[in-house]
Amino acid sequence: MFKIIKAEKLAENIYSMIIEAPRIAKSCEPGQFVIVRADEEAERIPLTICDYDRSAGTVTIVTQVVGASSLKIVGLKTGDCLADITGPLGRPSDFIDEDIEEVKKRNYLFVAGGLGAAPVYPQVKWMKEHGVSFDVIVGTKTKDTLIMEREMEEVAGDHLFITTDDGSYKRHGMVTVVMEDLIKEGRKYDVCVAIGPMIMMKFAAKTSLSNGIPTIVSMNPIMVDGTGMCGACRLVVGDEVKFACVDGPEFDASKVDFDGAMKRMALYKTEEGRAFLKEKEGLTHKGNCGNC
Amino acid sequence: MIEVDMMKKVQVREQDPKVRATNFDEVCLGYNEEEAMAESTRCLNCKNPKCVEGCPVSINIPGFIQKVKSGEFKEAADIIAESSALPAICGRVCPQESQCEGKCIRGIKGESVSIGKLERFTADWAREHGIKPEVKAEKKGKKVAVIGSGPSGLTCAGDLAKMGYDVTIFEALHKAGGVLVYGIPEFRLPKDAVVQPEIENVKALGVKIETDVVIGKSVTIDELLEEEGFDAVFVGSGAGLPKFMGIPGEQALGVFSANEFLTRNNLMKAYRDDYDTPIARGKKVVVVGGGNVAMDAARTALRLGAEVHVVYRRSEAELPARVEEVHHAKEEGIIFDLLQNPVEILEDDKGWVKGIRIIKMELGEPDESGRRRPVEVPGSEYEIECDTVIMSLGTSPNPLISSTTKGLEINRRKCIVADEASGATSKSGVYAGGDAVTGAATVILAMGAGKAAAKGIDEFLSK
């Protein structure tokens, strides 16, 4: 059992939790994720690590309600316990293991869409701590769905660009519009890291790649064990089948088959897809798989 | 009284195939006291027992069978416990026909003694009568870490605890048991009734189990040795990543690895309404492969309501699955499409599996495995309709441990290199066994390796 030190609502259906998990806090790095199980009957759900405190032995996770198992997680309060949290899983971001002097020579562009602000945050925090220059774009549907503005502002300052699809707050338009604007202003980037919904990553990567910027995306396919045993998270990267849990979750965007990956996600996320799944899964369809 | 034909095994009771095809209850019901005592009269109590040689953990088989014969079941259980920590599991899933029973002298002219069913009876009797293993050894004051709580890890941990070591098992999943819990289905190996009590027995020996710890990620082997005060480590982390065929359409929705399909059903209990995890409940399922895992996946899909075909590229004689499993599968209505191999998975407009294109095969010259190599028959391709495809083609080793442990040698197949007799690896203090070393094999071979490594670790730490 893992104690919840603090549970907090960030936006409608989006909650943050600080969890006591000393082993994970000690070893996790930006880019990695955890698998959480709320209780005995719940699914194992992969969630990104949004922050960590090595000395306090805690990690922060952000959960968006999408089904019964994630609803169970956010239903837990400060002082309650999660049945399980396992990790850190996946490979850390590339820059963690690179020569820091090389990394410092680069200018990074981070692009976060929606919930993607959570996994992007520890990366920009790392950049700030290591004196690497960067800009970060945070895009969201509308003002009310924006998360982690204060935390981002603290580490990014003037390098933070917030945009809303409906123009209700700060800039108006998709993240790709801001990307184009910044590039037109003459800003030069050596690496782009785009994290968010699959469709947003597809178009963000298209924008950065067409401007000649090498781009990394973080894939979030369905997982069960998260340790390289079940193969549920397989993706085609280049011509190879890769497992997001052990080979990823971050991949070179120019090699990712977004349409193939989205095909599967779409099935779980649309009304039609859900009805289809219900038919396919028959009596075992719980309609609450965390991906529906 | 049961009349015993010395040439034949006392028949074991099983659930009717038609009934069991619709439930997840155990197929084999096992012997009762009377049947076990009757079967035990068939043992010749050989002076030079071949059966023991055939057992990877060298159980004193004639010894325990003689105790069953005289109705001294506790004593029988004590004899098995000297060699095996998991008898109720082994009595169910060991391939006895190629091990102990394969060597049985009775088996030369008639049927061998039903050693597996007698072991199972004895272990079940002991559990039902609340008999727990005892620890007598003095504490050695040394700590051993065991990675993985599958058959090799549990065995190694149990043996080391009996010798007086302070043992902690680290398990990556939320539940202990490894393949016994996520892989082998309930109908072959009941989880709450059989696996859990045997794990509790290992814990009763003083073994601690820490779940949710992924070695190589949460903590490394080097950190266990250098920072957490462990004096030795046993790696029993299991087989790893599922293999796929690399044919077109394999990314279609409705294509699963057997590992995923079985994990959803067994570990996550997707077949039960009270658990959240879903599973594809196909109408027509094709399982590709012919091993025990393929049989488990096929029989699980059948129980979820599907018509199930097993597609295997060689003939029945080469099926790697146990004969008993194939027999049970056929009884339940699994259709075997032998000497056939998939070449493409067909998708509908939503990207879901709608069929599979298959080519017929014939057997050619023997290959390096000694089995006749299957060769495609030109122009024999045909399509069958299906909505789910389960790939059961084996696994390749997981790199999590080998890539994060300094000085741990792996071989060409990326398995950890370990000495068969002692489990010693290229790194001092680190031992390994089970599927992580051999690639996918059986529960009992993993247990044998766990046992050998416990001995190896004891020798190392006694120096």
TL;DR?
The complex is a heterodimer of chains A (292) and B (463). Chain A is of the alpha/beta class and 292 residues long.
Per CATH, the class of the largest domain in chain A reads Alpha Beta
Structural class of chain B: alpha/beta
Strand order of the largest sheet of chain B: 3-2-1-4-16
Strand order of the largest sheet of chain A: 6-1-2-5-4-3-7
How many distinct helices of chain B?
A: 19
Low-confidence stretches of chain A: 286-292
Number of helices of chain A: 11
Oligomerization category of the chains in this entry: heterodimer
The outline of chain B comes out as: globular
What class do helices, strands and sheet pairing of chain A give? alpha/beta
CATH topology of the largest domain in chain A: Rossmann fold
What do we call the CATH homologous superfamily of the largest domain in chain B? FAD/NAD(P)-binding domain
Give an overview in words.
The complex is a heterodimer of chains A (292) and B (463). Chain A is an alpha/beta fold. In chain A, 32% of the residues lie in helices and 30% in strands. Chain A is built from 11 helices and 16 strands. In chain A, strand 8 (107-113), helix 5 (117-129) and strand 9 (133-140) form a beta-alpha-beta unit. The longest helix of chain A has 13 residues, at 117-129. Chain A starts with a strand and ends in an 11-residue tail after the last helix. With 463 residues, chain B is of the alpha/beta class. Chain B has 19 helices and 16 strands. In chain B, helix 10 runs parallel beside helix 19 (443-462) and helix 15 packs parallel to helix 16 (323-332). Chains A and B meet through helix 1, helix 2, strand 7, helix 10 and helix 11 of A and strand 5 and helix 14 of B.
